[in-house]
Amino acid sequence: MKEVNVGICGLGTVGGGTFNVLTRNAERIAGRAGCRIRIGRVATRTPRDDIDLGDTPFSTDIADVVNDPSIDIVVELIGGYDTAYELVMSAIRNGKHVVTANKALIAMYGNELFEAADRHGVNVAYEAGVAGGIPVIKAIREGLSANRIDWMAGIINGTGNYILTEMRAGRAFDEVLKEAQALGYAEADPTFDVEGTDAAHKLTIMASAGFGVPLQFEKAYTEGIADVTPYDIAHAEALGYRIKHLGIARRRDNGIELRVHPTLVPKSHLIAQVDGVLNAVLVDGDAVGQTMYYGPGAGDEATASAVIADIVDVARSVAAQSQQRVPYLGFEPDAMESLDVLPMEDIQSAYYLRIHALDRPGVLASVASILSEHGINIESIMQKESELEDGRIPVIILTHTVQERQINRAIEDLESLADVQGHVIRIRAENFS
Amino acid sequence: MKEVNVGICGLGTVGGGTFNVLTRNAERIAGRAGCRIRIGRVATRTPRDDIDLGDTPFSTDIADVVNDPSIDIVVELIGGYDTAYELVMSAIRNGKHVVTANKALIAMYGNELFEAADRHGVNVAYEAGVAGGIPVIKAIREGLSANRIDWMAGIINGTGNYILTEMRAGRAFDEVLKEAQALGYAEADPTFDVEGTDAAHKLTIMASAGFGVPLQFEKAYTEGIADVTPYDIAHAEALGYRIKHLGIARRRDNGIELRVHPTLVPKSHLIAQVDGVLNAVLVDGDAVGQTMYYGPGAGDEATASAVIADIVDVARSVAAQSQQRVPYLGFEPDAMESLDVLPMEDIQSAYYLRIHALDRPGVLASVASILSEHGINIESIMQKESELEDGRIPVIILTHTVQERQINRAIEDLESLADVQGHVIRIRAENFS
Description:
Two copies of one chain form a homodimer.
Chain A: E1 3-9, H1 13-24, H2 26-33, E2 36-43, E3 58-59, H3 63-67, E4 73-76, H4 82-93, E5 97-100, H5 103-120, E6 124-125, H6 136-143, E7 149-155, H7 158-167, H8 173-182, H9 191-194, H10 197-211, E8 221-222, H11 230-238, E9 241-252, E10 255-266, E11 278-285, E12 289-296, H12 300-319, E13 348-358, H13 363-373, E14 378-383, E15 392-399, E16 402-403, H14 404-415, E17 420-429
Parallel strand pairs in A: 1-2, 1-4, 2-3, 4-5, 5-6, 8-10, 10-17
Antiparallel strand pairs in A: 7-9, 7-11, 9-10, 11-12, 13-15, 13-16, 13-17, 14-15
Helix pairs in contact in A: 1-12, 2-12, 4-5, 5-10, 7-8, 13-14
């Protein structure tokens, strides 16, 4: 049986998981790959004594992996931007295939890396970068290759989903975040997770794989969950909706929508039932309709599962000496689509609005008339008489789908009404229909 | 750009969908495959005037496709056993790759077909045979290739799931079945769907792909849903469970469990929320944990989506002239596992039991003592005093996981009690933990 040599760079959570699973399931994996996957070298600056490397060659300098002529596939699991970029670029220049779990690296520098990989005739695979162990990139690029992908919507950050799930019990964001940190679900600096940057990295990659457009992370709209309140969660529930932090990418005639924000989704839809730290990605294709992929979005061996699936795919093509790989972004470069990312004002969505109005006759009529002037139809409206406070009543409105521009203008007009106090709370909503 | 020629045999629901999607998305599909997929011939005994074949060569004899030297891939969409077997075998003998949606054919004759395909160096692909448009075979064979798959559980028959979903409203099986037939969800002869044969075909294929064992349809245990009553559905709900018609394949140390039957699943689990005609497959791997794949299990273009994904995969390897394909059953032949299908008596499951007991002192004690004698622990027990009728009371029990042999023996003893009347109703239960 042929042998393919991999070099693992980084021995943290995912690196350790990858080493352990590759070792434990070596026979099984060889039976699937049609070749033996040998760990030719492991490199890490911070060795671990809880992992038995046996007689695997070991270095504290990751350059040793890239310069080792016996290594066919470099597995980049060090994370971050700069060193990872240098590592991957050198591997490509040395004619080595690359497997990475680094979503930030691919989202920011993927276009350059894929271009270099094409020139050097090597693969760059990144399944583990999106939704951890769920093979969603494979589903999008291969399983649904018959389809025009129309949209994708994903719960692609476990920390955020855990926090929103716990907030349904009426608990405040700050309190749940602290708990998530104590449980190890959230980092000490939770910015990337709760502000949506991590989800935007993954969404950028999914959109490129599904739509066949270049990676455009800098154009993704990102809104976090820190402003979501138990009050709005409860009122969304009363309207039949659940608030999820979704990454949404949608193909439109004149461009693509690329946005991460808190979103109301119908409770009856399966994705609304995905709770806790789990991830799920919903994909709509013109032939298949809606399919959903669900599972762990993080964790040592779950992420390793995706890293190794990529290694097996690459190893199979190395063993076959075939260049007929699946294209990086789901499309051959000359078949890529020229769709730009639309500005947020041009996206289409339904909206949940919460207005604090003075309890005076005619307030509802003025609100309804402003929405109507802006061409906005109302799906439901709730006036919470029971919550009258300081002479103000919350008015909660769910609109039909309109352009974000229309809502922005309507909100300006609503906020200028003498009977409306403070800011209008706005959360986007999707019906997936 | 290279061209790969496919010949479509059969122009029914899936054949028509495949022709239409291949035509409509031709550019997109070529961009993904790295080669042009040309429909070189369509053959059907029953032409359709609602599909515009344009100048595609057309035959009423499917042998024309198999004998056409320009055809690289034969797409078998005629269904059934005998003619389909002859067609696929001749295609293989003529050195052509095969893509099929025919689960019955693969479940019954797959071992022979794969063996012949290996001898002739061609592929036989069958993604569309399991769970329609959901790319679950790709997930199992490729996306989870790092894992020892421990078990799979699927809602893999839409008709059955539709019926059980509607029965939750208290409606009887026969009534809902008639409605499903009127809506076109169920065939005039619904036997294959409601008795579980169709699900057993799909489960057999999944088990072989996931565990790397030969296809053993004849050893699958199959129990239909005709005996499920609204009464038991309601009581399962009261216990926190939903009844689903599941196909379950589980790896055990001494063999595999392969069984289709009504099953109680916890309402809190995502798979319990999959309603109507939709399909979902839950896969547990030792590295990744649980992942789930959800979507349409039938339909013209949904199934075509899976057929075409297979065509693209095969076309990519044809264009590369590579024999380094993904192994048929997820494993190279010499790495296959020698696990036998266990007899039903040896499977492990939890159980829902409904006993009709005379309302006499000591009945509960005798029941509990019989279960205890057989080593069966009770998770919960409900005695429905309010339903006392003719001096009989229903006693509902949910057990912990035991061997089916233990339950069979306990039921025999229970039925021989003077205070127990009629048969004990038994439905299996799974906690997926």
